[in-house]
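Changelog note: in this version the structure field was regenerated for every chain. One regenerated record is shown below for reference.
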Amino acid sequence: MRPVLSPHRLAPALLAGVALCACGEPGVATPMPEPPAIDVGGVTGREYAATAGDNGAEASVTFETGPGATTAGARVRATNLDGTAPVSNSFARADGSFSVTALAARGDTLRLQAVLDGVRGPPVDIVYMGANSFSAVTRPDCLDLAPGLWLTFEDGEPTQDVTLSSTCTGAVSVENPRARLSLADFALETSLPVTLDPGGEATLRVRFEPTSAGEREDVLFFDAIGADAEVIRYPVTVFGEGP
């Protein structure tokens, strides 16, 4: 259950498959928008303050990519999962490269997520290591979250579920729910802790009740603790729009 901080370049994020619906003329399938993935294999970090991360102080850190990092025109959002600073936004250039700046201190995890035509792609989490370096965050393959590490509430739907499936060799305890901003708009309705035995499943239900108009976004966290007592943090970005 130990997370891996890889010093190597990040592997490309997987594109989700194209969903088809039988719309328009009979027999003609209309493709739904494809979630924009992010490949930050070519990212470099640049400190704008010499003390960034060295003494625990936050400073502006810019991440830049080469061409093909994401879909041209996509909005790239950077969220510091270990802080409460506003989400940073940037837009991908015509060649798919982007540059995004966020506040971070050494050891902070930044979540990068691309949005295009209202569709969000899978997030990529990286740890800022200081001295212009970063590492990818990977989590154990034996614990799967569906639909993933983000939820989008659409069409007034009040609840969504995250299904946890375990193929770990021992029991896994899911506990310690909390939130990045603790917005009243989002609530985890499922009581924790819950225990997943090998081959077991559990459902976490999240409720969205907007308290104001416009975009509402937070990150819900929980910990997974396996037989080795390692604590793995799972962040789930939740997003909805108020009336």
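Spot check on this record: The longest strand covers residues 214-225. The chain has no helices and 21 strands.
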